[in-house]
Amino acid sequence: MLSAPETYDAWYRTARGHWIGEAEYRLLRRQLELRQGETILDAGCGTGYFSRRFMQDGHSVVGVDLDPAATAYARRSLMPPLSCVVADMTALPFADRSFDCVISVTALCFVADEAKAMKEIVRVARRHFGLGLLNRDSLLHRAKSPDAGSYAGARWHTGASVAALLHDLPVRDVRVATAILFPGGGPVARVLESLAPAGLPWGGFIAVTGSVEPRDESRQRGIGPA
Q: Among residues 186, 160, 198, 188, which one has the least CA distance to residue 30?
């Protein structure tokens, strides 16, 4: 019998899971505009799907997750192995600005104090951040029970809640886009997705990216350590 991490990761190898995972990854990467070789922290990395994809594109990635079983799976399933730390996203065990970029994909929605976790993400990011959130204004939300499967207990976001999450943080150049307008994942859904105009706000996956202000500017605004 497969373990819970193995079962979760195997979903990304199904036809629907592969399409959704790749669509989410491509959107997030396009929004981030990463430089070659930039270092990344994957906060709430789970079994390492997005860590693996960024590593395949030439980035050095460190994963953090509170679940020891998930991080153990991520370490042994990736080649080269993913460097993983078992830690809480609300208290990341890294110095300020330790990574060029910090990502967190569908992990904040399961953190009780997401505002505190978001502050930690910005604190340890040197240049930019990228979030993957669940969209309340989507067909996916309408189709899923809030207590169903891997969505159980998840927080679903809106444009207003995204703005509130970033309010008063030292970030700028924030970009918001969505993917997975038609979550069925079948051939028709994929064709419709490819034909849909860019920028529609109703996709099930919200990609939020932005830049972290330089330290001097953050201090001028009264944010962060003196």
A: 198
Residue 79: exposure state from Cβ atoms within 10 A (0-12, 13-18, ≥19): exposed
Overall average pLDDT of the 192-218 stretch = 87
C-alpha 211, offset from chain centre: 15
Long-range contacts formed by 70-77: CB under 8 A, 24+ apart: 70/5, 70/8, 70/45, 70/46, 71/45, 72/5, 73/3, 73/5, 73/6, 73/9, 73/47, 73/48, 74/5, 74/45, 74/46, 74/47, 74/48, 77/9, 77/47, 77/48
Kind plus residue range of the DSSP H or E element containing 177: strand 171-179
pLDDT at site 226: 33
Does residue 150 surpass a pLDDT of 90? no
Split at pLDDT 50, 70, 90, the class of 133 is very high
Judge whether residue 220 has pLDDT over 90.
Answer: no
Residue 225, pLDDT > 50, answer no
Tokens of 85: 């730390």
Tell the CATH topology of 4-220. Answer: Rossmann fold (3.40.50)
